[in-house]
Design a protein that fits this description.
Length: about 280
């Protein structure tokens, strides 16, 4: 019984934190204003050309499905074979039974259609899963953390270009997040360098490099960060493990993956930042 009571109290505390954050968000300047104060004016944001999303009536259930790592991997394969595919071509990361359920679900919400030889995407050409993943993570910040968030942002900057995958306002602080849908083997040193360039240009209070994988970060990603820090600092700071596959630098730059839960990992980052900032 005591366990149930503790669980109820924890849930109540989380709801109260969400309520307080929502109130704080309403009392503090908007994210766009905070960015303008730093000399950043939004040129473009949240492009829709490559989004793999259903109609609004199915958005809530789709958001819940996106929490499953195997479903996200399944969608990557659907995009890869979007013109024509059979069940076997999208069954790499889940059982045939689970994949059948996933196929039936995305067919019911209108993302794919049945054709004589199998299935095909019904929304037109989708180049990659990247924008859909950025949308999903921005929804996490909005729904789970009551944070204002925008994704796919482009600024007109003289030196540092490219897209900022996600920027959020969390308790008055600016959070920048780089979101990688590719596995670690397809992430290269130049991308780590570009991440640091954007961090130094924007100077957010919190920066996160997120890879949507359950693979170890210590094998490739962390060594690339250590190499980049050596290039940029005479006395490079250490990359410190918080727990499992979550790491931090200066308690301001965080490196995380999707192991266990994206939501839980982002929560761990926020707890680490705000508790150590006191």
């Amino acid at each position: 019984m005591s366990g149930d009571k503790d669980s109820d109290e924890t849930q109540a505390l989380r709801e109260e934190i969400k309520r307080l954050r929502k109130s704080l968000a309403e009392l503090t300047p908007s994210l766009e204003v905070l960015l303008r104060r730093r000399g950043f004016r939004i040129y473009k944001k949240e492009p829709s050309e490559d989004l793999l999303l259903p109609e609004n009536e199915f958005i809530d259930s789709f958001y819940e499905m996106m929490k499953k790592y195997s479903f996200r991997l399944f969608l990557r394969d659907v995009i890869k074979h979007q013109r024509l595919f059979e069940l076997e071509q999208v069954t790499r990361y889940a059982t045939a039974e689970v994949t059948k359920d996933y196929l039936e679900y995305i067919r019911n919400i209108g993302l794919i259609e049945k054709v004589s030889d199998g299935f095909r995407l019904s929304l037109g050409t989708i180049k990659s899963f990247g924008e859909t993943l950025e949308w999903f993570v921005s929804e996490i910040f909005r729904k789970e953390f009551s944070a204002e968030a925008i994704w796919g942002i482009r600024f007109k900057r003289p030196w540092v270009g490219g897209d900022y995958d996600l920027i959020a306002k969390v308790d008055g602080a600016i959070l920048y997040m780089e979101i990688k849908s590719s596995p670690p083997k397809q992430i290269y040193q130049k991308e780590i360098s570009a991440f640091f360039d954007r961090v130094y240009d924007l100077s957010p209070e919190i920066s996160i490099f997120f890879v949507d994988t359950e693979l170890r970060m210590k094998d490739k990603i962390i060594p690339m960060f250590e190499e980049e820090l050596k290039k940029k600092h005479a006395t490079p700071p250490k990359v410190i493990r918080i727990e499992k596959e979550l790491f931090q630098i200066w308690n301001k730059i965080f490196i995380i993956n999707a192991k266990d839960s994206i939501i839980a990992n982002i929560e761990t980052v926020l707890i680490s930042y705000f508790r150590r900032s006191i």
